[in-house]
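User: Hi! Is it possible to get a structure for several chains at once, not just one? Here's what I have:
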Amino acid sequence: MSKVPLQFRHNGRDVAIFVDGGTNLLVALRELIGDMTPKFGCGQGGCGTCSVLIDGELHLSCLTLAETVAGRSIETLDGMKQGPNLHPLQRAFADQFAAQCGYCTPGMLMAAKALLDRNPSPSRDEVIEAISGNICRCTGYEPIINAILAAAGGRVSA
Amino acid sequence: MTRHRGRGIASINYPIGMNLGGDPSQALVHSNPSGKFTVALSSIDLGQGMKSVTRQICAETLGVPVEDVYVDTADSDTGPHCMGSFASRGTHRVGNAVMAAAREARGVMMEAAAEELEVNAADLDTDGRGNIHVKGAPHRSISTKDVAIAAQFKQGKTISGRGIFLVPLSEVNPETGEMSPATCYAHACLVAEVDVDDETGEVAMVRMDSAYELGRALNPRLVEQQLVGGAWMGVSHALYETPEPYYPEPVHGPRDFVEYLMPGPGDICPHDIAVLERPAPDGPFGAKGPGEMCANPVLPAVANAIFNAVGVRIDDLPITPEKVLRAIKAQGGARPQARR
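Assistant: Yes, the chains can be modeled jointly so their relative placement is included. Here is the combined structure:
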């Protein structure tokens, strides 16, 4: 299969790679760009741990053809930190003990960021809805929901 | 269609660890010339907090700040032997091994400090902030860093310690076969409240209230995290998860995360937890372990709550809508029990 040139913005930086036709965005990010923050969970849209933002909108990178993001802007967990400081959501996840094994955490954080970027003060039900495509084995979700609400309420210092 | 509210209760008595071969774990502690300490383990931290808790135990035993201790885990090629992270044994077994290793290392550290300060080691104490001083004379002190440097480059001593924890073999009574397979038990009681829909058979969690007696909670936030998350895993086992829904027939089994049922964030309910601390005589600083048992009481409590709600006794897990509905039909309708 022939390689296709592909350019897009990755966490505010322009990147140019060659991908095989049919490569998904998760593989392109992890193997070609070296951004390991989106995780491979199920590879079929069932777990949410590969979540990234495409032009600010939440997407499952395992179900996104890499070629479809040409010229678009991709945000991953790798770009969430603000310089040396954690993003308020990351700080809130740490403060609220919202991670145990940590495998769902990148996807949870991206889903939460997608929500707070468009709705800075969500209700509890809106938070639950926003992370309903992400599964977590360890936490029972409660600490994750509380962390997102704390970050939204500004009860977290970054 | 009617939704029936039911309440169920379950209590458990949970042995910490197992007794096969004494269920041992080992730990090694050594200082670096920087005055920091490394704990070498082959035990695994799966996210439950093994690293944090063994770090606390080591720092407290050595008498140094927690930030001066680094815990290196999960390499069974280089770390001393551990039976594993299971059976709620991590804090208790590995914690005890770390404590023994840290105690031995502390002994060498105090001897090395005594030599530098020209006093008797028995007259020295640590301040928990990285200094060792003469009891009653805090101005006569030396930092753990300077002690480590002196031990390494001047005295030729290794500030290190070895630790193992092994449960003594239980004698078997030849008459009765009676024995004590465990030395340490934790306890819990959980009340589950559910709504059961008698038309669809669906069970929705309404709330949980629980009390856990788990020795001393060495890190209360980590304990709470375990109890919240573990209870939800219990709900998942009670109502959702199975690889073989029609066991022993291997049909209709889930093949992936899309088909393997687990509760999502929309299925959770309020859970009020009380932690009772009764220090265990043989636990590190009195700790037992909150591991597996945070999932266990949920299953019988939910089964009892379903019985209380609609009068059907389901003894096969998970309690799926299909099983509830078939049982309700078999008894000719829902028979709510007395409200508890």
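DSSP finds six helices and eleven strands in chain B. Helices of chain B lie at 50-62, 90-117, 144-155, 220-239, 298-310, 321-330.

User: Great, thank you!
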